[in-house]
Design brief:
By secondary structure, this protein is mainly alpha-helical. It folds into three domains: 64-290, Clc chloride channel (Orthogonal Bundle); 316-332 and 381-568, Clc chloride channel (Orthogonal Bundle), CATH 1.10.3080.10; 579-657 and 670-751, CBS-domain, CATH 3.10.580.10. The protein is 50% helix and 6% strand. A three-stranded mixed sheet has the order 7-9-10. Helix 9 (226-245) packs parallel to helix 11 (265-293) and helix 18 packs parallel to helix 20. It is a multi-pass membrane protein. GO terms for molecular function: voltage-gated chloride channel activity. Residues 705-762 form the CBS domain. Its main location: membrane. Belongs to the chloride channel (TC 2.A.49) family.
């Protein structure tokens, strides 16, 4: 049940965020993101609902068709900027990672020609330096940039205001932290952080830049409401996936399936346009880099593992081992989620409480362990002779030292030998996956080497996930899945004795199955895997393994992002309500709470006292009729009250109400003044200074309250309330007694509004309602004579249940 006091946690969030760069505990990091805030029960919701007060209506009335067209054009222009910005950020990250990795492996290969011990030390030190730079940036500059960022962005789009996740320093920390952690060879990827990067770019563009770092522009400050920022952040998420995988359609579907809680057709068009722009930017950058302008970038490059020349067809007998891959993916994916939960809890409760220095030590220790394993294990593996060269194949065996490709000659006594374990271990993850997916390389990897790599890399991925560095799980998941997929492919080739079976095909299916078993995505992941492999023939097989792996994984736990969001204290409203809600009503959810309401004309001293004594975010506004009956006339937000107190221009000496519709006093506020900054540092009651004369004055709240809040009857099923709350992105719902009478019934055709030819500004509702009088042809909206029901309870979802 909801508690009696609903706290917004504004002061708490400000306190926590102000301590971010140097805090020793309770800071916003990748493990316990909201631990400090949750201890005070203070997660705040976002105002996705349009507050249709008189200030809003006056502003809308002054806007003509020209402004509407301008607003639409600006939204498309912002979608263009988001696509360009995210694409350039992805290009910068990839060029940096590929060059750092290229220099590292080239230098190491040159040194090991003389001494393997010296090469090992240089390899460890380079990785350690890169990882140290990443963890130092995160702990000292941008703690909110740790982790993948997808659970936080999912929470934001679900309506939860998480401090610090969309700031400029978070963007900088995400970009440079990803370069250090991925370039340093840790068992993580840059794809999840790119989603967060795209969301940060979109949010910063929407608010006109960063005022703190003097990187702002007024002409970009067109979208200040949470509702508009939500659309921009959705475009940024899709752009991040499109840039990470070069999968524009997959990016759109990822935003629709995984991160958003609210969708509409107009947003679909802009998201698709943004992803298309990202694809163009990335393609142009790759074309420019092919001429050698980007150093080592190009041979590794962006993720795209073209296996269009792989297996042409498959037989019915192969469906059984493919189904087995799906089952293995579901089991290993669910196990991965559970192990990361245990490790994350241990880190949060014991390790990371000791401060930032321990986080740095931890990341550096994991870097050393990863480097020793990736360099040392191939030394224990015997080399294999190169296969007979295929004139139609461009694969060289062994490859030139320090270059990308298959068949790595590492610690081999003969020139025509290669080390299969070094081919996947002593390599960048993108190139190792490309080797595992490669066609016409049957028996390149032995089962012993694949099993060794699977066990070690799986353990490293579990331990690395949750460290204080930007970390994505897409590429490590593909690495794990492609390894056991190739193992199944080896057994399938040996069992069926067919030459047309490609082990790389099974590696692809294994990668899809592990991601499906861990992240529980289906449609978007299927399209992403098809786009990055450029092989549409495998679409039915990918669909098969995804369905099986998701079904198996769901039998054990939830998806990776849902589990991590719960660990971070992010109160997500999932797509389906809990089963026990069917037996509960809205009245049951309200409990015995006492509704704290405000009169229409309220004394300033009373407002200050109420705001200081509680943390509620919304207050019902009531008025009294001539008969002494109490009416609910609207909802007043706490943030709006603070704006009114700070400005003081609406204070009045008279305790009588004014009528803004009658023209006695015009609204002296722009609606944008009530918008909350994206940094969550809104006005606090402690920041407002009022004199004794100010406290004796009055405020008429009617012009500033929302006159049409969403209401539900007290006996409505909590399941229906849940669906209404989530699908509309609400922050408050009034619970009222059963209404005494009906003034009309709206059906489908009443909502099909047509513009009249005589006056295009008049919109008529042809209602089919039962009227008390035959001459009543139109529904009266906002009539003051209409009886309003009393308020029974108030249901507010802007806090974290204990």
């Amino acid at each position: 049940m909801l508690s009696n006091h609903f706290q917004n946690g504004m002061d708490t969030a400000r306190l926590v965020w102000s301590r971010l760069p140097h805090s020793e505990e309770g800071e916003l990091d990748g493990v316990g993101l909201l631990s400090a805030v949750n201890n005070r029960n203070g997660v705040e919701s976002l105002d996705y609902e349009v507050i249709e007060n008189y200030a809003y209506r006056e502003e809308q009335a002054q806007r003509g068709k020209l402004y509407v067209g301008y607003n639409v054009a600006v939204k498309w222009f912002f979608a263009l900027l988001i696509g360009i910005g995210t694409g350039l950020a992805a290009v910068f990250i990839n060029i940096s990672v590929e060059n750092f990795a290229g220099w590292k492996f080239a230098l190491t290969f040159n040194i090991i020609q003389k001494s393997y011990l010296a090469g090992c030390l240089i390899y460890i030190l380079i990785n350690l330096a890169l990882v140290f730079s990443s963890v130092y940036i995160i702990t000292q500059f941008a703690p909110a940039a740790a982790g993948s960022g997808i659970p936080e962005i999912k929470g934001y789009l679900n309506g939860i205001d998480i401090p610090g996740i969309l700031l400029f320093r978070t963007l900088i920390g995400k970009i440079f932290g990803s370069i250090g952690s991925v370039g340093g060879g840790l068992a993580l990827g840059k794809e999840g952080p790119l989603v967060h990067t795209g969301a940060c770019i979109a949010s910063l563009l929407g608010q006109g830049g960063s005022t703190k770092y003097h990187l702002s522009s007024r002409w970009l400050q067109g979208f200040k409401s949470d509702r508009d920022r939500r659309d921009l952040v959705t475009c940024g998420c899709a752009a991040g996936v499109a840039a990470a995988f070069r999968a524009p359609v997959g990016g759109v579907l990822f935003a629709l399936e995984e991160v958003t809680s609210w969708w509409r057709s107009q947003l679909m068009w802009r998201v698709f346009f943004t992803s298309a722009i990202v694809a163009v930017v990335v393609r142009a950058a790759m074309g420019w880099c092919k001429s050698g302008n980007c150093g080592h970038f190009g041979s590794g490059g962006f993720i795209i593992w073209d296996i269009s020349d792989g297996q042409e067809d498959y037989s019915f007998k192969e469906l059984l081992p493919m189904a087995v891959i799906g089952v293995i993916g579901g089991l290993l994916g669910a196990l991965f989620n559970q192990l990361t939960i245990y490790v994350t809890r241990w880190r949060r409760n014991y390790l990371h409480k000791k401060g930032n220095r321990v986080k740095v030590y931890e990341a550096c220790l994991i870097s050393v362990i990863t480097s020793v394993i990736s360099f040392g294990l191939p030394l224990l593996r015997k080399c294999s002779p190169c296969p007979d060269s295929d004139p139609d194949s461009e694969i060289e065996c062994p490859r030139v030292p320090g270059m990308y490709g298959n068949y790595v000659n590492f610690y081999c006594s003969k020139d025509k030998e290669y080390n299969d374990l070094a081919t996947i271990f002593f390599n960048t993850q993108d190139d190792a996956i490309r080797n595992l997916f490669s066609a016409r390389t049957i028996h390149e990897f032995s089962a012993q080497s694949l099993l060794t790599f699977l066990v070690m890399f799986y353990a490293l991925a579990v331990v690395t996930f949750g460290t204080a560095v930007p970390a994505g799980q897409f590429v490590p998941g593909i690495m794990i899945g492609s390894t056991y997929g190739r193992l199944v492919g080896i057994f399938t080739v040996n069992h069926y004795k067919k030459l047309n079976i490609e082990e790389g095909t099974y590696a692809l299916l294994g990668a899809a199955s592990f991601l499906g078993g861990s992240m529980r995505m289906t449609v978007s992941l299927c399209v992403i895997m098809v786009e990055i492999t450029n092989n549409l023939k495998l679409l039915p097989l990918i669909m098969l393994v995804l369905l099986i792996s998701k079904a198996v994984g769901d039998a054990f736990n939830e998806g990776l992002y849902e589990e991590q969001a719960r660990l971070r204290g992010i109160p997500l409203l999932e797509s389906r309500p809990k089963y026990k809600m069917r037996k509960m009503t809205a009245r049951d959810a309200c409990g015995n709470q006492k509704v704290l309401s405000l009169p229409r004309v309220v004394k300033v001293a009373d407002v200050v006292s109420i705001l200081r004594s509680n943390k509620h975010n919304g207050f019902p506004v009531i008025d009294h009729t001539r008969n002494g009956e109490t009416l609910v006339i609207g909802l007043m937000l706490r943030s709006h009250l603070l704006v009114l107190l700070q400005s003081k221009i609406d204070f009045q000496h008279s305790p009588l109400p004014c009528d803004p519709r009658g023209g006695s006093r015009a609204i002296r506020h722009n609606f944008s003044e009530f918008a909350k900054p994206v940094s969550s540092k809104g006005i606090s009651i402690n920041d407002i200074h009022l004199s004794s004369n100010d406290l004796e004055m009055y405020i008429d709240l009617a012009p500033f309250s929302n006159p049409s809040p969403y209401v539900v009857p007290e006996d409505m099923s909590l399941t229906k309330v849940y669906n209404l709350f989530r699908q509309l992105g609400l922050r408050h719902i009034f619970v009222i007694p059963r209404a005494s009478h009906v003034i009309g019934v709206i059906t489908r055709k009443d909502l099909l509004i047509e513009e009249e030819s005589g006056d295009s500004a008049i919109l008529e509702l042809q209602s089919t309602s039962v009227r008390a009088q035959q001459h009543e042809k139109r529904m009266l909206v906002g009539n003051a004579d209409v009886e309003r029901p009393l308020l029974s309870g108030l249901l507010i979802q802007d806090h974290t249940p204990s």
